[in-house]
Write a structure and sequence with these properties.
The chain has 184 residues and is of the alpha+beta class.
Length: 184
Amino acid sequence: MLRKVEIGIVKKQGISVNQVKYSYLSLGSNLGNREQNLNKAKYLLNIFDIKIIKCSNLYETESWPNKMYPKYLNIVIKIRTFNTLIELFRKIKLIEKILGRKKTIKNSPRTCDIDILDFDQKMFDKTVDNSQLIVPHPRLHNRNFVLIPLFDIDKNWKHPKLKLNITKLLSKMGSNNLRSIKLI
């Protein structure tokens, strides 16, 4: 019979160290075969032991701030993980690199961009590996390519910091912003 330590259920001060956490990720691509890039990212998340529970529809949006760049394809996924936030962040950065993302100027085209929108309804702001990791994502409530796909998969989601539900956040977006996104 396996002991709890051998199967990864270690108790520390009465709390399980390996507790399951739920997170929402935004995935986008505007270089190469965009849909294939997103599918590869989902495959790699699974390989890295990050279980996808739900996936939104696929949406297309203009690049921002430069509309001359190729259009983005975007999805939002809900995941289940035993990783810490920092472990998840590092795995995501590795997946982006595997898929060909290179360090370039901010908002430039990319094969794959993965953002952590919400991690177990927690708040976090810290430098990790020379990158600023802020959760919930500081601009998620202003982005149609995040809110609409997030609404697809969780109509009851509530912003951890703003304490507003997704319906309220969507209602605060201007109609032009809502019309500028296309369901694929």
